[in-house]
């Protein structure tokens, strides 16, 4: 960590920080100019004075990838972290390939590539040193931002930079990598590279962008998804102070065409009314005074209450499409020697509510004198390349006509993977013929989200007279749109219940819906874990057995279901994290009245995670989560501080969501307008969070999402342990529980 | 539109704005001070927290015509070249994830520490009850506020 003395030096820089902002490009408030830097590869530049610049090409939304990937480069290079500055790379497919962040995949997808970049730079530095010092490469070693000769003589990276940049780039197959036991950066605690900027209020998020000549815009969409605007009180709106333009836009499905399959169809431009004005307040005021005539043909009619009823009917019919036939399950359920149970679980739609509402700044310029049109975009995005695709599909612009400036996101969680708001901004700018910053209100952001989809699971199970699992029957009742299950609805096929259980039957049915759904932190897992791990507890309880023992027994022999496949469950790793979480949480001790321990395990995003929640439940059904113990196996940890922050954040997010949040639709209209109705957990409810990593010898995988799914079942199971009430619904407010 | 004189971070500004324009948008759109954030517009999330006369205030619901004293924003918290102890603590404890809520968190905590040099967990929870962190950095926020209080205690007035 940066010592306080270093920080005071840094803070002197902060005092001069205002000057820094004047000489740097508008987009970045924190980086040092690279005028004299020598480029060793597209990720690494070195200044003659020793400043090392490492580029971060993966979008940053708070998951800390801007630190962890450069750490890998720095490690292989032999750089001292103190000499490194990290700069956000521009969007450049030729240099960086697909720049995207999601699915907890940034570490596994980039680990080897970052090692190669660092090793490649190291070899060039060593090559330069060999020439300068007139020695053999074999006798040279790079460490501490220097190249050392066996004799003790050395050169700094700064001294070597110019010559190193001229060295041939090594062939990737000849690169060697550091022994992990020699790591001095990877696995340590490194603070966020933007922390000073954030703490002094100088971060530039998308919503903070200012470009010359910029106007501001609001956009008002049909309250029922899929409707379009027919007319509005244009004269009245145009007469309002600060308004410079107001017009209607038609829906445009071309914006929804996307090469990434999971995004296809989502980003369509919704029809609506744009107001353009001199400042945010003018256009938000005008938005409030809009009177729009909507055409609701084909618009959303979903009704959450109806969906629940329909799902119960489907559960009763039990005619789902078969995923796993489980021919013996029915008999086992009906066997008089077994005890059986049936349980209907439900979970609602929820919104992303990134703290930074959706926004995008667009500058569409008509080409003069035969020149081509151009478009420049400033956006916080998880997949900024998608913006170019939208510009191509909707506006016919070639990639070289479009510049995308990716900015730090005030939250992603999957919402910023869908660029409907970029489609709006570019269309508004084109129509108004002026650069515009489009800002969504919080209400816009909630109403027009791509929600985590709700759903239902009807569970049946049986235990034998000697307390073992005899039958598992899981009927997933999900939602589909245009005949396809929406993102996050249904079972992927690699879940614990799909691969590890003997005598399991799994079926699925999908109901039609029009409510938009998209990726939301740990899609599918974020809700299925609640059902799977609560129902296992129900069966353990039915059998009169200790939950931990029952769960471990279900995991069975230590085996990798599909050896070599990180996305396949490994029951050995599952057993290890489950045992560790239980041990660290003091599982098995007698709890005082009103308190309980609850356990859950989940496998998703290549991670094996177990959590134990310790809760206090009062007679009035207020409850607190006092402690959460987490055991995680994602292989080696890159940035210990970053990984801990993600686990802690996922636990808080999981608790916030399961305790408080639901989105409901009534005739297709979203009922929740702002944080009054749709609450986020506050600091007072934060549990103590105790995290234990098993850094197994496996390739490193990500921690952005996997700690969220097991939280909900751990808490629900703990509440049962405390007061004997089984909860089969989220949010907990629906079951009468209030988080304090 | 009316004219208003505002003192923000020690500097006097003449601002033209409609009387009902919230201070938040005056700060962001007129004065280009972007550190104070828009999160909800209805004083529920705390991202817009500034100090008015030293008191923590949700600037998204304070009309510019009702601003009654000097305003301090996150940009004005550091004293010249010296970071506020909270800012030092925020860095030392690696608090932020996305960073969007953090200006508001720090401003609320700064108001707390100005009146309570050694806050308990309950004091912190109460003072920051109005500040959402959707990324869930609350554990670290608590640690950092305690740490900042201890920096001030060991260093005395500075």
Written description of the protein model:
- With 740 residues, chain A is an alpha+beta fold.
- Helix content of chain A is 30%, strand content 23%.
- Chain A is built from 20 helices and 29 strands.
- Chain A starts with a helix and ends with a strand.
- In chain A, helix 12 packs across helix 13 (420-432) and helix 16 (525-542) runs parallel beside helix 20 (711-723).
- Mean pLDDT of chain A is 94; it is low at 1-30.
- Chain B is an alpha+beta fold.
- Chain B contains five helices and five strands; from the N terminus they run ββαβββαααα.
- Chain B has helices at residues 23-30, 85-92, 102-115, 121-127, 138-155, and strands at 2-8, 11-17, 49-52, 55-58, 71-72.
- Chain B has a three-stranded antiparallel beta sheet with strand order 4-3-5, with helices on one face.
- In chain B, strand 1 and strand 2 (11-17) form a beta hairpin.
- Chain B is globular, with a radius of gyration of 15 Å.
- The termini of chain B are far apart.
- The relative contact order of chain B is 0.16.
- The model of chain B has no long low-confidence stretch (mean pLDDT 96).
